[in-house]
Write a structure and sequence with these properties.
By secondary structure, the protein is an alpha+beta fold. It contains 9 helices and 4 strands; from the N terminus they run E-H-E-H-E-E-H-H-H-H-H-H-H. Keywords: Cytoplasm, Transferase. One of its GO terms (molecular function) is glutathione transferase activity.
């Protein structure tokens, strides 16, 4: 653990899955931070001021003691090293840490990509453009999303309460926030997957009130759109 524990500047938006994960982790571990909400709808992430901070023009990112970091997985690992947090988040034991790393590397393509693209194709882009979603692409992302969610149910949660073992880790926070995302597009991954459902409830209990707070924006969107069909998404 480093002794350079000053305040973190946190750039985020709660529509972003990893932004929510980082906010939950920061709040849960009482890491002091200056919140800088980046207004994506207004294109703040595309402006030169933000590009100077993050040339990838995405959230989340952090600045800490003049050091800027732009990838959520790297940020979580960094925070676990720099701040006094419980070892279970990112264990120092090589084998236990390797299990967390295994999920963190797996989830990029197998889970995050299809869930995020399903949300983007079916909900986000129609909302932005006012045009109906491309059904062929929606169907393709749906099939990939189902495969990823089934792997969480049948492999990662097959015989343990958390994704990487018997204790909660940063993998669980990231994974849960990804699982939440397609709910805004009308699909709940926990339905028909009892282990996934139990795990999600366990994560919410472990991390509340911070989990609920970070997902207040997402839940408000879902509540607003309740009962509306996908054909009407473009009118929201």
């Amino acid at each position: 653990m480093s002794t350079r524990q000053s305040v973190v500047t946190f750039y985020y938006h709660l529509l972003s899955q990893p932004s929510r994960a980082l906010k939950i982790f920061l709040d849960r571990n009482q890491i002091k931070y200056i919140p800088k909400e980046v207004q994506l709808a207004q294109g703040e992430h595309l402006q030169p001021e933000f590009e100077a901070i993050n040339p990838f023009k995405k959230v989340p990112c952090i600045s800490h003691n003049g050091f800027i970091l732009t990838e959520s997985v790297a940020i979580l690992r960094y925070l676990c090293r720099e701040f006094d947090v419980a070892d279970h988040w990112y264990p120092k034991d090589s084998l236990l840490q390797a299990r967390v790393d295994e999920f963190l590397e797996w989830q990029h393509i197998e889970l995050r990509a299809p869930l995020a693209m399903y949300f983007r194709t079916k909900f986000l882009m129609p909302m932005i453009t006012g045009k109906p979603p491309n059904q062929e692409t929606v169907n393709k992302m749906y099939k990939m999303m189902i495969v990823g969610c089934d792997k969480v149910e049948n492999i990662w949660l097959k015989d343990k309460p958390y994704l990487c073992g018997n204790s909660i880790s940063i993998a669980d926070i990231l994974g849960a926030c990804e699982i939440e995302q397609p709910r805004m597009a009308g699909y709940d991954p926990t339905e028909g997957r009892p282990k996934l459902n139990e795990w999600m409830n366990r994560i919410k209990t472990d991390l509340d009130p911070h989990y609920a707070d970070a997902h207040s924006y997402l839940n408000a969107v879902i509540k607003k759109n309740a009962g509306k069909s996908s054909e009407n998404v473009s009118k929201l």
